[in-house]
Fold:
Amino acid sequence: MAELEIIGVARSNYVWTCRILCEEKAVPYTLTRGFPQSPEMRALHPFGKIPVLRHGEVVLYESKAICTYIDRRFPGPKLIPEDPLAGALVEQWVSLVNTTIDPVCMRRYLYGHVFPGTADGSPDRARIDAALPEVEGQLALLARSLEATGHLVGEAFTLADANLVPILYYLAKLPEAGAMIAASPALGGYLARHLARPSVAASEPPPPRKA
Ligand SMILES: N[C@@H](CCC(=O)N[C@@H](CS)C(=O)NCC(=O)O)C(=O)O
Structure:
């Protein structure tokens, strides 16, 4: 059978989600290094983004599409439930996180810390402070949604959780969002439990190298 490749870098939250899917379903895969906007990624993805999946003749981009392919193509636990409502709720959460929560919490807030673009490399306070009220509101929504079962959809781990956990992992490392997560038993407990999940632990990105 053709080798399945996830192309990107381990630190991308979207790459991590795809790797969690492979681990959950015990699909052998290779993580092939590909940097966003490199000539290699531009040849594979119309906007040069990561991740891209390659599996024989199949080349796919967009993490949601990649995860759907892995879920349907391989045996093992279903990460997108077949039940119509549960499946739709997974779609709902993946869409909401990717189109609304990631742009605020990752691209605006987290990037203000890790890719600030300031002259001395210090955090971009204006950008961070402008994003914080929305970050707080979004984390509160997630906390309320996780309170009942400890999962975004139903009682089991789904693609919705595989998509959210990498984002919370990175947010928890930052001072303001980290304090919000630590202060919320629903969010803090959810993150701790899921980081201990074998599929998540096995694919956790390596720590950044010290300069
Ligand atoms: N909607 C895309 C988002 C992918 C994405 O934004 N990936 C980031 C890395 S986490 C990236 O490639 N950024 C580089 C860029 O946008 O130029 C997906 O779900 O795959």
Observations:
- The beta strands are 4-8, 29-33, 52-55, 58-61.
- The longest helix spans residues 84-114.
